Amino acid sequence: MKNQKSIFALLAVFIIGLSASAFSHCEIPCGIYGDKMRFDMWLEQITTVEKSMNQIVELSQAGDKNYNQIVRWVTNKDKHADDIREIAVDYFLAQRIKPVADPNDKAAVEKYQKSLETLHHIIVYSMKAKQTTDLENVEKLRSLVADFYKLYFDEEMEEHLKEHEH
Fold first, then answer.
1. Rounded distance, CA 144 to CA 166, Å?
2. Long-range contacts of the stretch 88-94 (C-beta < 8 A, 24+)
3. Which of 16, 53, 121, 161 to pair with 43, CA 20 to 30 A apart?
């Protein structure tokens, strides 16, 4: 019995560790970053949230409601909205956006502040996407991600947006 509890405890720790690290990026820091990939991930998550919202609305309006499917779409929407937030927090805020070394460098300070503001808005709108099925939150997320892309890379995001059109 004691061995079974030990095995169960190890298995639980292993599963929790895998689930926590499956999406996160390391904080060693490893120096291996896929910045553009994170934007692609964001766009894919946003499209998934949008599809989930549309399915929730459609299934909720049906005469014979399939509550099981509605719950599954809500769960899916919420998970992907959380993933959007995790990229903003765990990847960009924790690892990629660095405080400005020289506070007298006004351009660097402005870019830093704008990055923080835009990431904060991405976090807020991902939360709003969890709270509702309002597609305006999806469009706002797309716009914010495009704004942050331009700020981060100093280039437009048109190519990435075309790949993830809805």
1. 17
2. 88/119, 88/122, 88/123, 88/126, 89/119, 89/123, 90/24, 90/25, 91/25, 91/38, 92/38, 92/119, 92/148, 93/119, 94/27
3. 16
Region 40-69 average pLDDT: 97
Name which of 132-136, 146-150, 161-165 the model is least confident about. 161-165
Mean pLDDT (whole number) for 127-153? 97
Q: Which of left, alpha, beta for 154 (phi over 0: left; psi -120 to 50: alpha)? A: left
User: What does each C-alpha distance from 45 to 114, 131, 166 come to in angstroms?
Assistant: 23, 16, 12
Closest CA to 93 of 120, 114, 66: 120
For residue 119 the two structure tokens come to 């990431």
Amino acid at 135: L
Q: Is the pTM of this model over 0.85?
A: no
**What amino acid is encoded at 33 in this protein?**
Y
> Are the C-beta atoms of residues 119 and 97 closer than 8 Å to each other?
yes
Beta-carbon contacts of residue 148 (< 8 Å; ≥ 6 apart): 92, 115, 118, 119, 122
DSSP SS3 for 101: coil
pLDDT digits (tens, 9 = 90+) for 72-94: 999 999 999 999 999 999 999 99
